[in-house]
Amino acid sequence: MKSIALLILMTALTVSCGDGGNTVKGPSGRGNQTNGSNTGVTRSEDQTVKADSTLANTGSGTDLPAGAVLIATDIVTEVIIRPDPEGDPWESEKVAGYKGEPLVDGIFNQIYDGSLTVYDYHSGEPLTRDDVKKIEGEFKNDRTKIGKLSFTEDWYYFPEENRLEKRAKSVTFGYELYNNLGKVYAYRAAFRADLQQ
How far apart are CA 54 and CA 62, in angstroms? Predict the structure, then answer.
């Protein structure tokens, strides 16, 4: 009798708990299974959009391209764009194709002409042009000292094409800090610039 009561109790708990709270409502109103780590990575047929639609809203404020599966949101990718030439040669090879001066200069130009607001990396507070001029003065107005870029991205997988697409939402510039031997020992975040989607 005790085993039957225990079995009924376990069944009732299983039914009432469902999937342990790992279901979130997608745009269709049906539940999407998450991977349980709350990273925004989902496994669901609901995330795949039929090829006849151009965009669908995922419910998270992100438009999903046709045929895409959203596999990651707000992934941070950091790239050291000025590696130590005396260090690991692979670090230099990885960024051999980098030609980012138009990006760096373009963002600074937009800040100074008032068409772009950037934000403090730590607090998220908007920075004024004077704030940015002060920050730029910290690396002696030498933009080649921006040695690290940090991108916040969403990643989309297109299963029909076996293709991955990354969409950068923001970029943070990091400028080099030197030790007493003149070697880079760290990077300081200058500001975060949001990018148009």
Answer: 13
